[in-house]
Write a structure and sequence with these properties.
alpha+beta, 9 helices, Aminopeptidase, 2 domains, 310 residues, 13-stranded mixed sheet
Length: 310
């Protein structure tokens, strides 16, 4: 096996991998990954994306890429073709990327969410390098949604998303994820500045599909403008939505607000002839998993989120 720096490759040489990867996203996760691949192509051809390509018998067998943001390294993608022995190629690519990130000056943290296709990533190998948090990718056929047909809790009002809520939404994210496992997985949740970066990526940029404000909602107290909960939704394929964020302020949790928001989003998607809705959730977040299961979501894939903290 030969390992080549991604900055020495061009996107045309990886086209077969891109096509196979997009097929897995479409068939297994109901997700149109082509727009993400187009961005990856642009960065590769600009020689601005860190990462590696594994070469077997003269052909690309897999690739992985990472980015560095201030003190943090993000492993943004890792894919190995089913035509090659996936475990050893996957481990070699991941090892090379981790070594490169550990060698970067002033790096204090590494985050990785690794979606396996065709083979499960070896948790024993991963746990030597990263602290692992298992996550579920869940899917709901909207026709099967179990809705209670009730309005948002008494004393609160639900309203459509507006970009004017960005600042208060960033504050909500920080407060909602204080001492929460998802704050360990994604450190953007730990500060208002990080929350704003997250929101810009979701709302203003195609970081997770195309943002769908018509199926995104805010909750405020009836007599106040303070934001206490929200749900954000994107389109990730034709007639397929994805819940990119749902959070409720401490003190308001446990009163059914999260379910009210999910039901509002589901109804909005149904009204627009969407067929399904997906989301990801950390496995140890039992209350959230139970909520989604009660709504009719089923886990269709489990994957690992890994973190290294220096």
């Amino acid at each position: 096996m030969q390992i080549v720096d991604l900055r020495q490759a061009n996107s045309r040489s990886l086209e077969a991998l891109f096509q196979e990867e997009a097929r897995h996203w479409r068939e297994e996760l109901h997700w149109d990954y082509r727009s993400s691949i187009n961005l990856i192509r642009k960065f590769i051809d600009a020689r601005s994306l860190g990462g590696y390509v594994a070469i077997e018998d003269g052909h690309p067998a897999g690739y992985g890429f990472y980015v560095i943001e201030d003190h943090k390294g993000l492993i943004g993608g890792l894919f190995v073709s089913s035509k090659y022995p996936q475990p050893p190629v996957t481990q070699r690519l991941l090892s090379e990327m981790l070594a490169a990130l550990h060698g970067a000056p002033h790096l204090q943290r590494i985050e990785a969410q690794l979606m396996p296709f065709g083979t499960e990533l070896d948790p024993t190998f991963l746990s030597k390098h990263l602290r692992l948090h298992m996550r579920h990718f869940m899917l709901l056929p909207l026709a099967n949604a179990n809705l209670k047909n009730k309005h948002v809790s008494s004393g609160l009002r639900i309203e459509p998303w507006t970009d004017r809520a960005m600042d208060s939404a960033a504050e909500l994210i920080q407060l909602a994820y204080a001492d929460h496992v998802d704050g360990e997985i994604n450190d953007q949740y730990r500060s208002e500045a990080g929350g704003m970066k997250f929101l810009r990526n979701i709302v203003l940029l195609p970081g997770c599909g195309q943002f769908l404000p018509e199926a995104s909602f805010l909750v405020r107290p009836a007599m106040s403008d303070r934001l206490v909960a929200m749900v954000l939704t994107s389109t990730v394929a034709e007639r397929v939505g994805h819940t990119t964020q749902i959070c409720v302020m401490p003190g308001y949790q446990g009163h059914g607000i999260g379910r009210d928001l999910m039901e509002a989003s589901i109804r909005a998607l149904r009204d627009r002839n969407y067929e399904s809705l997906s989301l990801t959730v950390t496995a140890t977040n039992k209350k959230a998993v139970e909520l989604y299961e009660h709504l009719g979501f089923k886990t269709i894939k489990t994957f690992a989120a890994g973190v290294w903290q220096g």
